[in-house]
Design brief:
about 300 residues, alpha+beta, 2,3-Dihydroxybiphenyl 1,2-Dioxygenase, domain 1, 2 domains, 8-stranded mixed beta sheet, 7-stranded mixed beta sheet, 7 helices, about 25% helix, globular
Amino acid sequence: MANTNDDKGSTLTTASPTRLRQIALVAEDLDRAQHLLTTVLGTEVVFVDPQVAQWGLKNFLVAIGGDLIEVVAPFKDDTTAGRLLKKRGEGGYMIIMQTLDAAARRKDIESRGLARVIFSHAHDDVLCVQYHPKGIAGGMMPELDSHAPSPTNPTPLESAFSPWHACGSDYHKYSSGMKRCAHLKLLNTTLRLAPGQADVEAAARQWEDYFGIPREGKSQLVFTNSRLSFVPGVDGKPEGLESITIEVKGRRRFEGMLDVARKEGLCGDGWINMLGVKWYFVLQEDEDQGDRNQRGSKL
């Protein structure tokens, strides 16, 4: 999209390192959702945010290493999440990203009329900006936030367990929970386009242009911690979150997760169906197990 703003200095023309810090889902039954995520994934709740009540929601956040899955459920009528539930059922709600300068990116987006800001909040070293999802490929509400680097948080994108505003103010408490879940790692997220739409390259280019996420190949966005890709729309299925892929360290944990999923009746064809999303798991062997396997292969 061409820049029509005369102030050339307001336009960001290059991609910026960006972290996919949090994925928000919407569910009918919050207790059931918490049971599934903590039991199947072997994770734990690291924060419950009372502030989301102002939007008629309840929530919880579970750790995927230093990144997060949030689940929200409406308790009032006529909420955005509630309307989404009625329209599409359980599934994806928001993609929440972290960059070094959310203010500069917002200035660029607004100067070119790319997307409308629907919520913004700044405090201390934090800025969070939510954008209206209309016209943005993938059917998820995008949010782009930043924590300014500081002496106590010098590398907010690279440090696995760096502070994150959505988890509240007790860093020691929530970071300890993250570290207990370090066996999990967010690898990939896939968004499905609307029915009849198949131009996955255009979708990835849009996110690259709007939010500054580096792109690789035709349809893959490269975050500092994981990747996001697009798939063509499917008749009869709404656009939105198609799948999440998580790496699991340790064969015992990996097989235990699959066993729990089978007992819960969640297994599909090579994936599990949980909260309206396909979940894929990739095994990473423990180092000592990998060494034993390597030694064994030489015998």
